[in-house]
Amino acid sequence: MKKHLFPLFLLLIGANASAQQDFFALVGKDTPNIVFNDFRAIDLANGNSGEKIFTADTSAKVFSQTRNGLVTEDKNAYNNAQAMNMATLAYDASNNNLVYIPMFSSNIYVLNAKSKEITLIENNVARVSSCDINSHFTRMATGYDGNIYAVNNSGTQFLKISRIGSQYVVSDLGIITDDASNGKNSFTTIETGFGGDMIADADNNFYIFSASGNVFKVSTKDLKAKFVGKISGIPDNYSVNGSAVNSNGKVVIASAKGAALYEVDLNTLQAVQLPGQENLHIYDLASKYFANDKAVLNNVFANLDIYPTRVDEKLININVNDKSVKGNIKLNIFDLSGKNVMDQNLSVKNGSLNQQVYLKNLVNGAYLVNITDDSGKVLLNKKIIVTK
Questions:
Q1: What is the DSSP secondary structure assignment for residue 22, as one 8-state letter?
Q2: Is 309 found in the same domain as 269?
Q3: Helix (H) or strand (E) segment spanning residue 285
Q4: Contact 106, 161 (CB under 8 A)
Q5: pLDDT digits (tens, 9 = 90+) for 178-200
């Protein structure tokens, strides 16, 4: 199978640091049991925690999608936005949302990281029982197609959470079973396959990191979980509870036991300890990055951007507010095979441009938007998802 063949100039661009928060953790209290404390940003440059986005004590404003209005939840119940037991988190970068599911509940919550408002997605698709460990959702990630995916402990439910317009729709993709080659390293047993977290790659496959340190590759085509190997370089008693891809394409793992963060090479499964805090009890990690992704997601110019990145109405806005950007610029859009599917010339006057571009003839899927100046210098690369 051919890999994604992006034009060479896209692959040679250096990844600049971005001020935008793009790595998040679900953090618990310093107790032996799972007790939710907060969602917070993580600064992987120094391994330290940053802004607390939402805590167990935050005044929650919850809007029910089903009831189309604000609701008051019982904070002593399993199914509330600040439930004690939580172990799933995904980051929807297109909408700056944190998505999560309380462990003992079928409710899905969408927290806007900026406004702190919460949307409750009540659904009867997930079948969760507080007393059945098999049914608890402990792994969640954003797929390369822009949808959110979640898997319960035993793999008997593989959920897809899609945003259609302003509404979220939940569907069950089926049962994930063991690949015939797995042998004693079963995805569906407590000792080798339960718990942990998952990440997505650029081919919309998923890698599930179980609490035991085993790694399974899940194909969405046949719903088989194939044992890839076991992480090396971590302590024997390390419990892997969170995983997310960083901007270097490596996987960062974290533990609920307050241990250090580690960076894992997905090809070798060799782990290297990261600097920073070692007393964080992390139940899940989330980021905007994907494994094996050749697209460069960071802007070269801070004051040049496109939005939205999840395109529902076939329109994107090009915004320039940078005196160093002058004259004509060119917009190119590539599909994931590297084929140029659209281009358009734009004119920047006095370092300023605010223009809508119609994405004619683009079918649903992921694309890379590339903007260059009249000399061919790359000004911006950014991935977008066209949904209709």
A1: -
A2: no
A3: strand 281-287
A4: no
A5: 999 999 999 999 999 999 999 99
